[in-house]
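Ticket 4471: requesting a sanity check on a complex prediction with flavin mononucleotide. Repro inputs:
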Amino acid sequence: MDALGKLYTSTTIVTVNLDGKLNGITVAWVTRVSWQPPMVAVSIGKTRYSRELLDKADSFAVCILGKGAREIAEYFGTVSGRTTDKFKKYPYMMSEGNLPVPEGTIAYLECEKTGSFEAGDHRVYVGTIRRQKVLKDEEPLIFGEHKLK
Ligand SMILES: Cc1cc2nc3c(=O)[nH]c(=O)nc-3n(C[C@H](O)[C@H](O)[C@H](O)COP(=O)(O)O)c2cc1C
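Returned structure tokens:
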């Protein structure tokens, strides 16, 4: 039995728009870190293409996926934006802050990147929430025990 597997989280797609280059990455390692101002943190593997983009970006969106979004979570979580435009495969909308929000999102947080630091083989990006929106009253897609639930 793996103790870390018992740490359940919502499944998200973290998106960026770097001078018109859109990308999104499935991220389960996400958490709230401050109440006032409202802030979140996402942990991104150092080898991911998204890590390169997030290093340069000033903002990102945390798109919280609904129970029905398993397929899109797997797609954004296995294909790399380094070689593929992931937003070509699924419909999406642009947020007020000009960040892509993919189909399957039930709520999203538009964040200003306010910090980042290394954590082992990942880099943690901290965002201050500037805008947030609920799109659908649906249960979130959960990641726990190393699988989607
Ligand atoms: C359910 C699920 C959760 C994931 N969670 C994370 C995560 O928290 N951090 C991370 O760096 N990669 C995570 N991944 C892996 C990335 O989403 C995957 O490597 C992705 O293809 C990287 O895309 P990119 O190269 O366009 O950045 C997860 C994948 C899946 C399927």
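Notes from triage: DSSP finds two helices and twelve strands in the chain. Leaving this open until the requester confirms.
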